[in-house]
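Narrative of activities, Objective 1.

The group set out to show that a structural description can be obtained from nothing but a protein's sequence at a throughput compatible with the screening campaign. Below is one input-output pair from the validation batch, recorded exactly as produced.
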Amino acid sequence: MPIIISLSHQKGGVGKTTLTLNLYDYYVRNGLKCAIVDADVQGSIREAVAVLGDQDDWSNMDIIDMPEGGKWERLEDYTEYNIILIDTPPYLSQQLPSIFAVSDFVLIPCKSSPLDALAINQTVDLVKDSMEENPNLQSGIVMNMVYHSTDFNEKVENIVAEHGLPIFKTKIANRVAYSKSLFISRSVLGEKDKKAREEIANLGTELLNILND
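Output recorded for this entry:
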């Protein structure tokens, strides 16, 4: 049975899709069979593949269609994969409870902004409700698009900590490399920015370590 990891945040623009693509590539490069489910009706990932599919290895990306009738439990039948990443919509979709019900982990990216830190409350509440129904479900918040100002980041993180979910040690900086990589490959792992590569590697490793504990 595959490990199912959902990336979720009720607010758009927090970097869910970018993190999904980068985590996918990290796991594939490390020998894991991985797939993505684009659960956003806007189809950001499918659109990117359609536009950039003839460049580098975008065309080889494994994308699974959303299960018909909202039967997300069908993802458990994709036993050929080690990991399935679900990129959820940038709003509180009615599908989220069903998605979380089959997930092993819900990763909540939070942009380093007070408004984004305050905006995750409904997502966190929904995750906590799902964790009560599924005791095996785990969740955590990753600080994303972090600025260099340590004092500012600390203040935002203190707001996030009040929600009571674990915060990842790994932090993803606000780097041009993440946007740039989408045009020339599917992740920063193929780019020159060493710090960006290290951030994704650290996040992917930390996430698997939590799941394997």
